[in-house]
Design brief:
- Strand 2 and strand 3 form a beta hairpin.
- Helix content is 10%, strand content 35%.
- It folds into two domains: 1-83, Nucleic acid-binding proteins (OB fold (Dihydrolipoamide Acetyltransferase, E2P), Beta Barrel), CATH 2.40.50; 90-131, no CATH class.
- By secondary structure, it is mainly beta.
Amino acid sequence: MELEEELPSMLAMMLEPPSPRAPVVAELVGCDDRRALVRLADGRIARARSTVALPRDLGGYKAVLVFDGDDPIVIGLLEPETHQAPSVEVCAEGERLVLSAQQEIVLRCGEASITLTRAGKVIIRGAHVVSRSSGMNLLKGAAVEIN
């Protein structure tokens, strides 16, 4: 009689879809053959497929993982927990490279910088600014002020 009483609940459990594992966060530690290497919570290093592009410098990044069976899949990245501006490395082999931003783009190296603003301003700063041309070097504007 006990089996007859438990049978409906056993059938209900068998018919329920398996519950998916919740996403987890793991440390990105490297890349291997286009797969991410992640340190899981138990300390193991696992190769993971990825749905997102992985940064070249993985330092400080955490990966958000889901699992296909026991195989981890990176579905997102958490930014490193620093207060520094993120650095970007761009490699372009084409004929044109376009960088876009909503407010401004700043190229900076030491004390030198070039700033492009949304309002159309181009600001060039440096301790020593040189302009060279093999042809005519033009300055055009509604007004040109020198010193």
